[in-house]
Amino acid sequence: MNTQNRKRPLEGQRALVTGANTGIGAAVAEGLAAAGAKVLINYVSGRDKAEGLAGLIRAKDGEAIVFEADVSREDQVRAMFEAALDTWGSLDILVNNAGLQKDAPLVDMSLGDWEQVIRVNLTGQFLCAREAAKEFVRRGVQPGLSHSAGKIICMSSVHDTIPWAGHANYAASKGGVHMLMKTLAQELAMHKIRVNGIAPGAIKTPINVNAWATPEKEAQLLELIPYGRVGYSEDVAKAAVWLASDESDYVTGATLYVDGGMTLYPGFESGG
Ligand code: NAI
Ligand code: BGC
Fold first, then answer.
1. Is the pTM value of this prediction over 0.85?
2. What residue owns the CA closest to ligand 2's atom 2?
3. Closest Cα to residue 32, out of 146, 201, 160?
4. What atom of ligand 2 comes closest to residue 99's alpha carbon?
5. Alpha helices, DSSP H only, in the chain?
6. Where are the domains of the chain?
7. Euclidean distance between CA atoms 43 and 207, whole angstroms
8. pLDDT (tens digit, 9 = 90+) per residue, 68-117?
9. Any bridge partners for residue 70, and if so which?
10. CATH topology for the 14-260 domain
């Protein structure tokens, strides 16, 4: 049975990853494909990068399609799920990864920037989770494919826990993701659907390039990371593959912090 295949624990499964043409999403899509899943690579801009990733996956005998959609738009999200179902007949894994930052001190933060971050980071996860859950409930468990009827992974952040001055919209969106994830996990468990979160710490991607682009900046950032290195997208991808597989079959409603200890209050190492 596929679930016994440790090297390719997702063999035959179908995954949709949002915001998958760069950074963490790209590594997650690649990781899921290497584990045997077919992947839909969602992007909102940068089709070339999405196609490049799909080509990379296909070159390794994987299966990938690309789809342009803004996750904050209901019509576009619906069209994306329809495309996945038309292509593969069903879906097994959703990775709600798309996200952005629009940083500003509170007094300078525009309503537009507040709303955009909430719309993409939080409403986008709701819209995608809703479409995925409809299909998972309709189809139920497919014996031989997975013990679950479906898996939803919500990309959160250490800032679902750590307050972040100058990023009120972002921290609020990730705090929202945390409770959205837990509530969906509670609501969907009876359907054998597992919902979990990943809360990355500082991972080197385009979203935070200013925090690690120079040795000085990186040294400053490392003061917040007890484990002594900045994370890579692959660190997060490995967690996503595990959460999507039957290896984590009894895990639902959990947030896995992949953060090199950023949430361990590093200031207390020598203080307090
Ligand atoms: P990134 O900027 O490389 O990736 C974000 C992706 O989301 C991009 O592909 C972007 O085009 C896409 N996106 C933005 N708006 C979208 C929309 N409306 N519809 C569809 N896609 C959209 O940055 P990264 O770091 O890979 O971010 C991925 C996720 O990880 C985000 O949710 C972010 O909040 C989260 N995260 C990142 C951390 C880091 O240190 N890099 C730490 C904690 C969480
Ligand atoms: C943010 C990054 C930041 C990291 C750690 C993430 O949620 O998107 O910009 O480096 O948290 O603070």
1. yes
2. 208
3. 146
4. 8
5. 23-34, 47-59, 74-88, 111-118, 124-139, 168-188, 215-222, 233-244
6. 14-260
7. 15
8. 999 999 999 999 999 999 999 999 999 999 999 999 999 999 999 999 99
9. none
10. Rossmann fold (3.40.50)
